[in-house]
Amino acid sequence: MDITNSNIFFALALTVFAGLSTGIGSALAFYTKQTNTKFLSAALGFSAGVMIYVSFVEILPKAFESLEGVYLGNGGKLVATLAFFGGIALIALIDKFVPSGENPHEIRDVSDMKNSKENHELMRMGLFSALAIAIHNFPEGIATFISALKDPALGISIAIAIAIHNIPEGIAVSVPIYYATGSKKKAFKYSFLSGLAEPLGALIGFFFLMQFISDQLFGVIFAGVAGIMVYISLDELLPTAEKYGEHHIAIYGLISGMVVMAASILLLG
Description:
This protein is mainly α and about 270 residues long. It has a domain at about 85-269. It has helices spanning about 5-20, 20-30, 40-70, 75-95, 110-115, 120-150, 150-180, 185-195, 195-210, 215-245, 245-269. The protein is globular, with a radius of gyration of 18 Å.
């Protein structure tokens, strides 16, 4: 596949957009009376719908297509399947080794942060959340970048879905730091910086992987990306959507995301 400078710039721009949406979470935490709104629940469900649908309908088939040309018989499907579950294992291991108190994938209500009496504990929670989000954003940055490089329309869909799911992660960083320091500026800064890990992950992926780029590498990465996105949807987005709102709102958002993704694929295909 021919990769031009414009393709690379576009993919990096999408990754920056997705990563820095943590700043939106900071703004929501500061300028709305309550962050656990029905709208946020529907948005998170929508993001999960986009991720799940695009993973199984677009990304995995592209992985199969890339790898079937490399391996004989069912070898391509086998490698893609292993890479899919490898992606799930990768993000699950990251979750496992990040302490639950600081893990942005462990659901916490904003009120839990407000009720803590110790400022240094709040500050610690915010800083460790920023570090944990940075760790999580590395594979997400690679996912967005590689997807946009292979298929710009698919990259846009993935970037939007990841951007939505980064919003509550921004809240997880900014709220405890704000209540610990009383500084909105400092809270926003740490939240914003944690999102920079996503484009940084894309850059590292670019410099380390692009020299080995091939159909085989694309296929393995795509299958792994699908696994990561499915895990994030089932482990983080849907449970958080239900906590912030109601079960049916989260499901309606999920189905809406699938419908919008299906329609965009049909229109752009």
